[in-house]
Specification:
Chain lengths: 313, 359, 259
């Protein structure tokens, strides 16, 4: 115990570079956490005056809750519509790419779908007004005449086609790539053995999907859906451009009076807003942040839990 | 030997093994024939006067003949299989259809606008015809550039922390998780965050290019972190060990071995992250605003950007509207081209500059 | 150069798990010592503790002493980075840096530490290291090609050249031939023979013939039982371990009855 090793070089000097670099990279990660907290804090600080504001000082002329409630409704409605359209579609596309298309083609087809994610939202908005609304308007007229007894299609059908339903379709397209990408990845991870076991039992391709792929991928599909939902909730420009909104609360999907969404309302009114109206808008942004945060948090938690399980394989 | 998953009760016929193995099935080219007939029907319908949507719908209905035919010949299970095949394939076509339509619309409406003037003139003092996107192009490049300068060091260092320092630790797991959650922050919320932050320093109604960069960074950092993390993870541990064994300190190992080895992947990831934020509209609408003039100063006043330019041109086209709408499509096309080029560049980088000669 | 290593009462832990228990061994200078034993018996772990490479794994720690030339590697003021520069290592699979040329790979030890040196000096180091690694004749005309363009055996000799270019005292080799074909293996073995005049060499191998061919001393490691730590069973001159081992387990292993 009495050996006193002679140091070849003092430890501190040697390790300074390491300390600095470690500090930098740890600091960067903490900074990210700080920014995330900052988003919540700054929106709260700037939003609270808007929540407590006197209705007369705000452009909407309403106190915060009546102001934000219809927007929340519209946000949820449009996002749910998008999800209902997009989920079966993206599961189908993912299955096509992972198990139906020839293997070599699969990667290329994946890129093509990814291109949908590369299209800027303002382009989606412009296309939605110029093309899609025109396509769907006759369909709305048809729905009103033939299915008008269902409240969803009560009409009167919008002549321009710029309805919440059209917004739902555009949003569905916008969230399709991320949902497809996640589903595709999980479908490809399905253990070969399970699939081969099903095939060896004489299953058809569809039965393999039903027996081996879907049970394995269920939680992945759920989280893909939630991530897509999160995107749809927060999407701004496409909604702001396509929707002809009047701030009503209605389940009528095809008429020309539509509920607006939080994000679209902010984008449309922020430019001219001043005073407490700005704070009210920021407060509505805080509401949107909380909703999307919860949705994303849950989705990621599901993905993470799944990872722990699949690690065992 | 019931080797079939769901044997149809009582239907197994007394057949020879050969027949049993062969089964009853549609002729080899059946699927192709049906698809061919469907396409022909669609073309015919279009020529006769149906709208494109109606023609496609009709073709799809025709393809459904395949599972029906299969049901008659091959039985229920194979018919269901074929039905699903048709559905899954049409889901893919259905997804491609809007993409093709978007590309076609933007190119056909935007291409005629592109000219030298369009790229080199701003909208200052332009009413009606003429003018261009020079100011918006400059704004987009400056704001996105600044966002990249902010995001890349933070994102890369965080990725280094996650892979090299925090690996497996609790803190790293939490950071990775929250970064994932951050990828879902709506872009408009990022814009509001930047606004709320800058209001504290510059007072109400602040509009500034750098604010846009901050907002874009909030969106960009998580993407950079995750893609860089994936790339750093791909560097084999053996290389790190080789470097340690030569008596190289950890930070030099990271900067001189790990980063160069994963450079191509990192560049690819950053390029894709840029492509993702360069088309963002909402946050820039909030914090960078819009102007008709060229502004080179990120720290002073409103700054036009391509997406916001396209948006405002469509929203407030003025009188007469057609010139503004033309310019909007032109700006949209330019934006789309930039995004596609960035995507292409990213793929090329990862294709050509990945370390070669791997065994 | 070339120093002996004296290990006394070394325990190696991963977290709370004791991986290697109570090893005491003297590794003589200028000779080749082979570590043999069944998979998972801790011989690689022990090897890596000799230049503190195992610290790369989080939570890994040791108790006990490793003295090289009288200095304790695990002394408070020891810098693992300097330890590793003194005690070089060659790995199981050849791992040249894929972004570097052959030349840069050899000089990597200096280059990665940003040591400034004249071109003539670095040329001299590269040539000397490659010559000692027996690779000079094969690569002298293509020093600027990527290191990964070489064959597996050449890559491993490149890694040896890289390890000796920083002038270490000791060279640790962790199954250096397990990924190589017989001809490359033989080239590496010849090289080990030549290098032992200048370095203290410790080699882990699964190949009994290889241990018999290249080593002067042999140490046999074994697990004391399932889930128990690995330990050093016996050590001695290679001829003795292979012809007349003291422990029955050693004899059983060498005769191929387990492992």
């Amino acid at each position: 115990m009495t050996t006193t090793p002679t140091p070849r070089r003092p430890r501190g000097v040697r390790r300074a570079g390491d300390q600095v670099f470690r500090g930098l990279s740890t600091g960067a990660s903490l900074l990210i956490l700080l920014v995330l907290a900052g988003v919540a804090v700054f929106l709260t600080v700037e939003g609270i005056p808007g929540i407590t504001a006197d209705p007369q000082d705000v452009k909407s002329g309403e106190s915060f809750l009546p102001f934000v409630a219809p927007l929340v409704f519209g946000t949820l409605l449009s996002a749910l519509l998008a999800l209902i359209i997009s989920l079966p579609l993206s599961v189908g596309v993912a299955l096509f790419i992972s198990h139906y298309a020839p293997r070599r083609l699969g990667a290329a087809l994946g890129y093509v779908i990814d291109l949908l994610a590369a299209v800027p939202s303002v382009v989606y908005g412009a296309w939605g007004i110029a093309v899609l609304a025109g396509w769907l308007a006759p369909a709305y007229a048809w729905l009103e005449t033939h299915l008008g007894f269902i409240p969803l299609f009560a009409g009167p059908a919008s002549a321009t086609g710029r309805t919440i339903m059209t917004v739902g379709v555009v949003l569905a397209l916008m969230i399709l790539p991320i949902m497809t990408a996640i589903c595709r990845e999980i479908f490809l991870q399905t253990p070969r053995l399970h699939q081969e076991a099903a095939l060896a039992l004489g299953a058809t391709r569809w039965e393999v999907a039903r027996m081996a792929i879907f049970p394995y991928a269920r939680s992945g599909i759920v989280s893909a859906a939630m991530l897509g939902l999160g995107r749809a909730l927060g999407e701004t420009m496409a909604v702001a451009m396509v929707l002809s909104a009047s701030g009503v609360v209605t389940f009528n999907l095809i008429s020309s009076t539509n509920p607006s969404t939080i994000a679209a309302n902010i984008a449309l009114s922020f430019g001219e807003a001043s005073g407490l109206t700005v704070n009210a808008l920021i407060a509505s942004g805080l509401v949107l942040f909380v909703i999307t945060f919860v949705v994303n948090f849950t989705a990621r938690a599901i993905v993470d839990r799944r990872k722990d399980f699949s690690g065992a394989n | 030997m019931s080797t079939v998953v769901t044997p149809e009760p009582g239907t197994r016929p007394e057949t020879s093994l050969a027949d049993q193995l062969r089964g009853r099935s549609l002729p080899a080219g059946a699927a192709r024939v049906v698809v061919g007939v469907a396409l022909a029907t669609a073309v015919l319908a279009y020529v006769v006067g149906a709208s494109p949507v109606q023609a496609v719908l009709l073709a799809w209905v025709v393809t459904l003949a395949l599972p029906v035919w299969s049901y008659a010949v091959e039985g229920r299970r194979k018919a269901v299989d074929r039905l699903v095949t048709v559905l899954v394939s049409s889901a893919f076509v259905l997804a491609l259809f809007p993409l093709a339509s978007i590309l076609w619309t933007v190119i056909s409406k935007g291409a005629p606008v592109l000219s030298a003037e369009f790229f080199t003139y701003s909208m200052r003092n332009v009413v009606g015809e003429g003018g261009g996107i020079y100011h918006a192009l400059i704004g987009t490049l400056l704001i996105t550039g600044a966002a990249t300068v902010i995001s890349v060091p933070i994102g890369l260092l965080t990725a280094i922390y996650l892979v090299e320092y925090g690996a497996g630790g609790r803190m790293a797991r939490w950071i990775r998780f929250l970064v994932d959650v951050m990828t879902g922050i709506p872009s408009i919320v990022a814009g509001l965050f930047a606004y709320a932050l800058f209001v504290l320093f510059f007072g109400e109604g602040v509009r500034m290019g750098i604010g846009g960069s901050v907002a874009l960074s909030v969106l960009m950092v998580p993407v950079v972190v995750r893609s860089c993390e994936e790339m750093l993870k791909l560097v084999p541990n053996e290389l790190r060990e080789a470097s340690y064994a030569l008596g190289v300190p950890k930070w030099r190992t990271i900067t001189k071995v790990v980063l160069p080895t994963s450079l191509a992947g990192i560049v690819t990831g950053i390029t894709l992250a840029i492509a993702r934020v360069i088309g963002e509209t909402a946050p820039l609408l909030i914090i960078a605003g819009m102007t008709d003039s060229v502004n080179f100063n990120l720290f002073d006043g409103r700054m036009a950007t391509l997406p916001v330019f396209a948006y405002t041109s469509i929203r407030n086209p003025g009188v007469p509207p057609e010139f503004a709408l033309e310019r909007a499509w032109g700006a949209a096309l330019v934006l789309l081209i930039i995004v596609m080029l960035l995507n292409l560049a990213a793929r090329l980088v990862s294709y050509f500059f990945s370390p070669k000669g791997e065994r | 150069m070339a120093k002996s290593i004296d290990v006394s009462d070394l325990n190696i832990y991963y977290g709370d798990f004791l991986a290697v228990e109570d090893v005491t061994i003297d590794i003589p200078a200028r000779s080749v010592t082979a570590f043999i034993g069944p998979s998972g018996c801790g011989k690689s772990t022990f090897l890596r503790s000799l230049n503190r490479m195992h610290e790369v794994i989080p939570n890994a720690r040791v108790e006990g002493k490793v003295l090289i030339d009288g200095q304790d590697l695990y002394g408070d003021e020891m810098d693992p980075v300097n330890v590793r520069r003194t005690i070089g290592m060659v790995f199981q699979r050849p791992n040249p840096f894929p972004t570097m040329s052959i030349y840069d790979n050899v000089i990597a030890g200096q280059k990665l530490n940003s040591k400034r040196m004249k071109k003539a000096d670095s040329d001299a180091i590269v040539e000397r290291s490659l010559r000692r690694a027996g690779l000079w004749a094969e690569v002298k005309d293509r020093l600027n090609r990527p290191g990964s363009s070489l064959s597996g055996g050449q890559q491993q000799r490149l890694c040896i050249a890289r390890a000796i270019s920083v002038e270490p005292e000791v060279l640790l080799m962790d199954e250096p031939c397990s990924a190589l074909d017989p001809i490359s293996t033989s080239a590496i073995e010849d090289l080990i023979h030549e290098l032992k005049s200048e370095y203290t060499i410790v080699i882990v191998t699964h190949n009994m013939q290889q241990a018999a061919r290249v080593s002067d001393d042999t140490a046999f490691f074994n697990l004391s039982g399932v889930g128990k730590p690995g330990r050093l069973v016996e050590t001695g001159r290679t001829e003795k371990i292979f012809s007349n081992p003291e422990d029955p387990a050693t004899e059983a292993y060498i005769q191929g009855r387990f492992g």
